[in-house]
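Listing 4. Sequential folding, example run.
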Amino acid sequence: MILVDNSYIGRRISSARKTANIKKNDAARMLRITPKKLLRYESGKELIPEFVLERLFYSAWAMMAVRNAPYRETPRHPQWEK
């Protein structure tokens, strides 16, 4: 078992959200919670429920996958440009 302080996890979530340029309202909508609840979680005043952490990790993995996907340009077809 690993014990971590609520405020530590909240600071990490807040820092990650700010780094990703995600506003509080957008993050709350993504996690399906109210912005007020998100503020309480980020400040460490309230324990983050398991379902919120699950949504957070799922969203983070999805964002990393999209962000790291290689960009491919549409192939050019010279014969079509005539």
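-- end of first protein; second protein begins --
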Amino acid sequence: MAKELIRLSGCTMAFDGEVVLNNIELSINDKEFLTLLGPSGCGKTTTLRIIGGFQKPTSGDVFFDGVRINDVPPHKRSVNTVFQKYALFTHLDVFENVAFGLRMLKPALSKGEISARVLEMLEIVSLKGFERREVISLSGGQQQRVAIARALVLRPKVLLLDEPLGALDLRLRKDMQNELKRIQQAMDITFIYVTHDQEEALAMSDTVVVMDGGVIQQIGTPEDIYNEPKNAFVADFIGESNIVDGIMKQDGVVEIFGREFKCLDAGFEPNEPVDVVIRPEDVDIVATKDGMLTGTVTNVTFKGMQYDIIVDFKGFKWLIQTTDISPAGAKIGIHIEPDGIHIMKKSDYSGMFGDYSSYSAEYDDLEDASLEPEEETAGDYDE
């Protein structure tokens, strides 16, 4: 069983009367890679700063290994931080940048121990042989590794990373995602990572904490967050989504556009209004005669591995991601398996998202999707 290392209990943070964190409850395990994910202003960096000791919560408690640390200053916590701006010492070479914190320790370490720890850390971050390089001669990714080595050489139990990939180009960011996960596993310590980039969060994390408006919206594995979003905000923020209104008729049956679709969800009240999320990759394009619904392709964008296709179902637009091209103007049918339909409780975010769609009463003339194809007639699909 995983051991809890950090716990935020009822943490609230307010600045000049404005609440930016609202009663946060969060448990972080030892040796876990946890990501705080959300848009600008959601409270993720404030949460990180509270953990690091740079800010004290207005109310609530912070526990580290079972001990309350609200009043413990940053330098006395077993935590270190890597910021987006690495703040490297340009007048020092790579070795001395990494060794800087070690030279400040009391009691002082021997030259031999400092050298051994610096060289060990440079090897872990794949900078062996760079000891005497000037930091200004390094690439952005290499400078970031120096900053990480400088933080880790002090052997903290937790490394905090605040948008550390933001200054890198796309290719370097992708490379460093793999590097950060490898370094975390090599060091066998807890990483707490802040980002607004959902791809980074899904690629690296053991646990993702989705935040908005100073509130935790959902906590889970990357798979859980993506496949079973708790509300429309999470569904929209994590990946692409088609979000529509629905009514949960009974377990395993949801009504969309006045028609019934099979799904795998249960536990809702009969006829409970719900939000329904359908991921673009879960929609199959079929012949119109075989489609649950039919519509007209309005836009096609080539994305390399796939096509992004916008389909207009009589005023209601969906995004479909597919390897099969359907040209603009084509009339297509779609099929969705029950496991591709995800049901969410109504929330304050209902009706706010679904960039490609909005409910259209024109669906009323479509056939019941629960009918077998032989029960349908071609005329039902005519626009």
